[in-house]
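Summary for the steering committee. One of the milestones for this cycle was to obtain a three-dimensional model of the protein with iron/sulfur cluster bound, which we needed before selecting residues for the alanine scan. The sequence and ligand used are listed below.
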Amino acid sequence: MKFRGNVWKFGDNIDTDAIIPARCLTTSDPEALACHCMEDIDSEFTNKIGRGDIIVAGENFGCGSSREHAPIAIKAAGIACVVAKSFARIFYRNAFNMGLPIFESADLWDRVSEGQQIEVDGDSGGVVIIGADTPPLVIEPIPPFMQGLLRDGGLMRHIALKRRT
Amino acid sequence: MGMTITEKILRDHTDLKEIHPGMLINAKVDVALGNDITAPIAIEEFRKAGGDRVFDTSRVILVPDHFTPNKDIDSAMQCKVLRDFAREQDLKHCFEVGTVGIEHALLPEQGLVLPGDLVIGADSHTCTYGALGAFATGVGSTDLAAAMLTGEAWFKVPETMKVVLHGSLKRWVSGKDLILYIIGRIGVDGARYKAMEFTGEVVARLGMADRLTMANMVIEAGAKNGIFVPDEITKTYVQGRATRNWQLYDSDPDAVYGSTLEIDVSGIEPQIAFPHLPSNTRGVSEAGDIRIDQVVIGSCTNGRIEDLRIAAGILKGRKAAPYVRLIVIPATPQVYRMALREGLIEIFLDAGAAVSTPTCGPCLGGHMGVLAKGERAVSTTNRNFVGRMGHKESEVYLASPAVAAASAVLARIAGPDALEAS
Ligand code: SF4
């Protein structure tokens, strides 16, 4: 699992109201949600980003509510994956359940600047900052069970496949 | 090796003999809960996965509480999804306007969640039920869909942080103040992935309402669940409500804890969480002169009858200050009815309050009290993130019902002591 894209940086404790405000939750349509992704932090966010870009965040990304609308909005906005120092736990499980790849890296945030390009290699467990002469940074390996969820495209497809066999 | 209450409950919902923190397990759930925001996605996922019948019609519970009574056409459509599904599946517990209350106040009150249960809810404040000695945690809609289908959910077994509360509480200091203080101490990720087990002589004296308030907000410290070992207070609360069996668990004396936090509560005064994080707490005497436009008393955190009694005790014979909008929302119809019988509703109306039918409403900036740009609210709810109650340039200050009521009268953030002195 490899991703290459431009970095958009966010700080610590980015909460689910920031990712997708509660006032937008009268719908669960991914496209409609994607338009409001991060809008209370940066109203231009969804206009600026390109498909395949990567969010790099600090500690406790996705804290707050259990709304799956958060990873849905990020995924539908075209973000390929999120690399944070750490994730809030409900966001963590929702991301895998939805099939949004997320990675924990202690160092990336401090090393990378917004707009730089990075390549995240989920298989070997490394991140390379393109054009920088720093050696690849380590990312936490994804537990095999979660890898299975991502491979199957999320929890429900995983269960549907299991029920068929 | 000894086990904590959280570990024992999780183990007894699997086929495993032993479990330990860090293990990924599949566990059976006793109750799977969804609301009008999260259940529509779950129902769609349930169908997409070929779901036909839910695993148990009395254990899948749907509570449309967030945007109800429907605030607009979109929210009406979402609630209709729940209603249609409940009818089709013949669900035993789907609530409708008139009987619906805020889910985390309603389920314990109605005896639908019980000690020893394993509960998942597609709502982050599902952790509230830990007050009863249950394992309860918030999940996403997809987890709910999977549980509706299979009766199971996946978990990483959390390590437990033991929080020991000593000393004695000052006047006006409630469960809300304790949990705000603790979150202020450890931060919004201080208990990330962990179970928080509350114990100590202070806890033994806390009533169920205070325990529910504390367990409700452990998610604000990033915890997976909060839990209180059940005691006589728990039993008294549960008896007469439960319609099925329940089981009391405790922690072994040699249980292994990841960490222990000892707190002497004697010096703690009523707490305020300043914008924009629940961990941004101070004592009310250090709040400074902060003028307010709105006060909200309600929510799954502090909308129970005990909360309304405290607020009414302070508001009796007083009025909300001019230009301060006071909104009181009993969390369930039963709370509403009790408040009516006890004369509390009349006290609120005399104080100039708007009293609403049970709803989440303003707590998440949904309806019934949304803030304009630049406005400030004191609220008994649980989150004060940017834009939580309305405009992104509005501010929410979290506090107890006592502080909220006193603040409404004085038009600034203040505790009941300041009110009595004024
Ligand atoms: S009252 Fe607020 S925190 Fe509680 S369930 Fe409703 S929206 Fe969530």
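Key point for the committee: The two ends of chain B are 57 Å apart (CA to CA).
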